[in-house]
Amino acid sequence: MSITYLKSCQTFTFHTQNTSYQMKVGKLNYLNHLYYGPALGDADLSYQIMQYDRGFSGNPYDSRYERTFSLDAQPQEFTTQQQGDFRINSIEVVNADGSYSFNGRFKDFKMYNGKYSLNGLPTAFATDTDHVQTLEVTLEDAVTKVQVDLLYSVFEEADIITRAVKVRNCGEGTIRLKKIMSTCIDFMNGSAFDLISLPGRYGQERQVERQPLTHHVHKIQSVRGTSSHQQNPFCILCDHHTTEDYGSCYGFALMYSGNFLAEAEIDQYDQTRLLMGINTKQFDFAVAPGEEFEGPEVIMAFSQHGLTGLSHLYHDFFRTNLNKSKFVKEVQRPILINTWEAAFFNFDDKKLVEIAKAAKKMGVDLLVMDDGWFGKRDDDNSGLGDWVVNENKIHCGLNNLVQQINDLGMKFGIWFEPEMVSEDSDLYRAHPEWVMEIPGRPAVRSRNQLVLDMTRTDVQDYLIESVNKILDSANIYYMKWDINRSLTDIWSTNLPGERQGEVFHRYVLGLYRVMDGIIRTHPDILFEGCSGGGGRYDPAMIAYYPQYWVSDNTKPLDNLKLHYGTSFLYPVCTMGAHVSDSSPQVPIQTKATVAMCGTFGYELDATHLDEKTIAICKEQSDLFRKYYPIIFHGDYYRLTDPFTVGNFTAWQSVSKDKSKSLLSVVVTNLTVNGSQEYIKAKGLDPNRKYRVNDTDTILSGTALMYAGLPIPREIPEFSSLQFYLEGIGIVRN
Q1: Active site members
Q2: 677 exposed, middle or buried (CB, 10 Å; 0-12, 13-18, 19+)?
Q3: Which helix (H) or strand (E) holds 518?
Q4: Out of 324-338, 458-472, 608-622, 717-731, which region has the weakest mean confidence (pLDDT)?
Q5: pLDDT tens, position by position, 189-245
Q6: pTM of the model
Q7: In terms of Cα–Cα distance, which of 296, 292, 227, 299 is closest to 93?
């Protein structure tokens, strides 16, 4: 059993292959958190909770003058409100009488086999081979009858625990939620943690920042309406000494694509609390009697094997339990060429066919027609929202164009930006009320576009119908879904004034409904997400898209950092990465090496390439196909840190059976007459021999991992090296 309940001490324990998690119904029926970490078997950790007289820390009234019991020092699974705990809290509710209070105490629980689900929110799922159990614990405020359900699913073999929350109003008056966190975890001895997050900006997403926790509240958040370029809904708590290969670390990943909040605090007694959920920015959600509110899921993982071990847990789980698309495991994804940097808005059907013919010689399988094919769309100022083919550009019609591309032996893809609208569009002229705009105030433009009110079902229905009509009109194999601005002017004509605090969250729910109506109904189409690059690259999006555009920045040396940071949570098979014309000083082979740390494709005008370059591209495309199983399904290792000063950046993928590996190196800084450098492999079988790059060079796994491979010094600037390692036998003792 992955979940056990010991009635004698009222403890719940979760068991995965390598971890344990324990909570307890404690004094006065408050739910205490006891432990999360390495597996402990059946140990009862109730003894861990200590009580002392804490000055200026309040005591629950029914503790009957017992000054040693205060929630201000107790480790909790979900905090109360206005009950003497002054730390960061899980919930803020305004009750029907105007009071701000929630005194949640244990009421009941149920356990069952399988995975919980949420209404309108994406969650991880259990496969037929997963051993998954779920626990639902109900807390209740005896005065207001507000109930909170804490949902836990334990994926035993995956070493993953998921967590979510539901708030149910069983009282007689409407309540308003102003804060609701999906997870709360307390560490009784947790003052020695570092916090790792993935901040950034447009073009520089998911950079890596590590800082020690202090006696302050540390926040990771987005208030831009999406998970954003600036932050990612993921963080790690790790010991100060944790490295890639050693040390304990905890991961928390939120399945949500809107405003999010992660808070971490070391309290006055050196205990650490971490919360994660929906951001409180303009969040004020009414819950009427008999209604319930559901918070998004958090995916939690723990590893004793350093940051690499934690990443492997997430990579395996994301590849197996987030997205049911056939393109995750069953069907090898095509190598694509995107027309944006090749033509921008200036193209027609003939130009597209010419690009496809040239790209075919490069080994490309799929042509993607980017922005500009619809409505009146010759620049950023018009056309968005009018999802009708512009036959002044596509003279032959979409179906005929797709057929011409298919006749070349290539597949066809198309770009959309469903959530936005141009003021110069038929849609806006017909439905100005469909735009988010505060009454009496002109809307804030961004990229000369406005935001459609995704809280409205008529907007959702229009998008589902109009996008599906295009997708069903021709043999479309791929769709890129873009969003190119943050949300402002948060107001919906669909809601009364007192409920405008619901708009941010209802936008996200509306978006998921539209995605369900488009993506879920087209299982044979490969969908890729994009938000000006990686501005909404989050776990919930990966539940819909097998791959996501890492960044609009296609400079290969910048991408070394982008891929590095992204890999802490997201597997390589989700990273959209292309070879482009940017950084002309970097050889095209190096650009290809970097793009192979991703889905691989091209972002350039193939008609302008000479025969030599086309031949190089064809060779790189063939190599990617050869390495595809290792890159997409193997274990990924960060061999160097591109944010530190060094002469090269290296990474490695190893097949699950350790029989094959691809080790990649990009030389970033050649020094004159420098020392000889070596790169040490990871993850190989120490008892196996490996052939290097299909040559006569054969080395043992131990030699490759502990002695390393020499990096040649006399090579051109920004060169790359790839070492293909194929196991050929077992080393004799």
Answers
A1: 482, 552
A2: middle
A3: helix 503-518
A4: 717-731
A5: 877 999 999 999 999 999 999 999 999 999 999 999 999 999 999 999 999 999 999
A6: 0.98
A7: 292
Q: Characterize the bridge pairing of strands 547-549 and 526-529.
A: parallel
CB atoms within 10 A of CB 270: 13
Proportion of the chain above pLDDT 70, given as a percent: 100
Query: Half-sphere exposure (CA, 13 Å, Cβ side) for 204?
Result: 7
CA 242 to CA 487: how far, in whole Å? 37
Q: Cα–chain-centroid distance for residue 310?
A: 15
Instruction: Please name the residue that has the structure tokens 């002695």.
Output: 707
Task: Give every CB contact of residue 353 below 8 A, 6+ residues apart in sequence.
Answer: 401, 404, 405, 408
Give the CA distances from residue 588 to residues 448, 578, 585, 599, 634, in Å, rounded to whole numbers and listed in that order.
35, 11, 9, 17, 25
Report which residue type is found at 476: I
The residues, any chain, with a CB within 8 Å of residue 407's CB and separated by 6 or more, are: none
For residue 281, what are its two tokens?
């920015």
- Residue 5 parent element (H or E): strand 3-6
Single-letter code of the amino acid located at 27: K
Token look-up 């090749």 returns 342
What spatial distance separates the first Cα and last Cα of the chain, rounded to whole Å? 41
Report how far residue 516's alpha carbon sits from residue 119's, in angstroms, rounded to the nearest whole number: 12
- The Cα–Cα gap between 295 and 116 comes to 13
Q: How far is CA 661 from CA 381, 412, 567, 655, 710, in A?
A: 48, 32, 17, 6, 17
The three-state secondary structure class of 27 is helix
Q: Where are the beta strands (DSSP E) in 612-659?
A: 635-638, 648-654
Classify residue 174 as exposed, middle or buried by CB count within 10 Å of its CB (0-12, 13-18, 19+). middle
Of 107, 86, 104, nearest in space to 95 by CA = 104
DSSP state of 377: -
Amino acid 731: pLDDT: 65
- The set of residues, in sequence order, having a beta carbon less than 8 Å from that of 229 and lying 6+ positions away, is 200, 201, 202, 203, 204, 205, 531, 532, 533, 534, 535
Q: Strand 160-169 to strand 175-187: parallel, antiparallel, or no bridges (unpaired)?
A: unpaired
Residue 593's nearest CA partner among 700, 709, 723, 479 is 723
**Residues 6 or more apart whose Cβ sits within 8 Å of residue 269:** 54, 73
Q: What is the mean pLDDT of the segment spanning 66-71?
A: 88
Q: Exposed, middle or buried, 202 (CB in 10 Å: 0-12/13-18/19+)?
A: middle
Nearest in space to 148 (alpha carbons), one of 114, 111, 116, 103:
103
Helix (H, G, I), strand (E, B) or coil at 152: strand
Instruction: Centre a 10 Å sphere on the Cβ of residue 529 and count the other Cβ atoms it contains.
Output: 27
The pLDDT of 484-491, averaged and rounded, is: 97
What DSSP character marks residue 228? -
The residue assigned the tokens 């950790």 is 45
**Three-state helix/strand/coil letters over 656-669:** CCCCEEEEEEEECC
Contacts of 56 (CB under 8 A, 6+ apart): none
In single-letter form, the type of residue at position 103 comes to N
